Amino acid sequence: MNCELTKEQALGKAARLCSGSEHCSSQIREKLLSWGMSDEDAEDIIGYLIKEKYIDDTRFSRAYCHDKFCYSHWGRVKIRQMLRHLHLTDAQIAEGMETIPEEAYLQTIADAVRQKNRTLHDTDTYQRKVKLVRHLLSRGFEMELVIDAVDDCLKLG
């Protein structure tokens, strides 16, 4: 039984996928290739989807940054790395990063420090600070902001 899709079937399937949720061109390219499309056919389909506004990498970047910050509480470093992994341009990434309000970003860092600090049982301040910094860096926040937030939290605590 032959399960390969025709170019038209792949286009329809990709269009439905893009209609349901936001995707970037590299994600759709990967899907098309996994469905057995040639590089040339995949590029034709992606070109059509971009022209018809099913795919917009800048729109994707804005949505991705907003969602990963608001719902996953990721920092800018981690978000930027993931967008680079998806082959978005620096301009597209920068536009997406603009969706993250500075005040909310700093508040998220402060909240994350306080929340993690409550779970630690170390009495040694140095060990506590190391664990807090490591935790926030793993979430993708910038070192300078992490250090400031940890110092503020430990002074108040």
What do these coordinates show?
By secondary structure, the protein is mainly alpha-helical. It has 3 domains: 7-51; 57-97; 102-156. The chain is 73% helix and 0% strand. The chain is built from 9 helices and no strands. It has helices at 7-20, 25-34, 39-51, 57-70, 76-85, 90-97, 102-119, 125-138, 143-156. α1 (7-20) crosses α3, α2 (25-34) runs antiparallel to α3 (39-51) and α7 crosses α9 (143-156). The longest helix has 18 residues, at 102-119. The termini are far apart. The model has no long low-confidence stretch (mean pLDDT 94).
- What is the tally of beta strands? 0
Overall geometry: elongated
| Discrete helix count | 9
What oligomeric state do the depicted chains represent? single chain
Unreliable stretches, pLDDT < 50, 5 or more residues? none
- Amount of beta strand: under 5%
Which structural class matches the secondary elements? Answer: mainly alpha
Share of helix, binned: over 70%
- Nearest-integer average pLDDT: 94
Rg from Cα: 21 Å
* Order of H and E elements: HHHHHHHHH
Domain module tally:
3
Report the major sheet.
none
Q: Could you tell me how far the N terminus lies from the C terminus, measured between alpha carbons in angstroms?
A: 67 Å
Can I get a quick summary?
With 157 residues, the protein is mainly α. The chain is 73% helix and 0% strand.
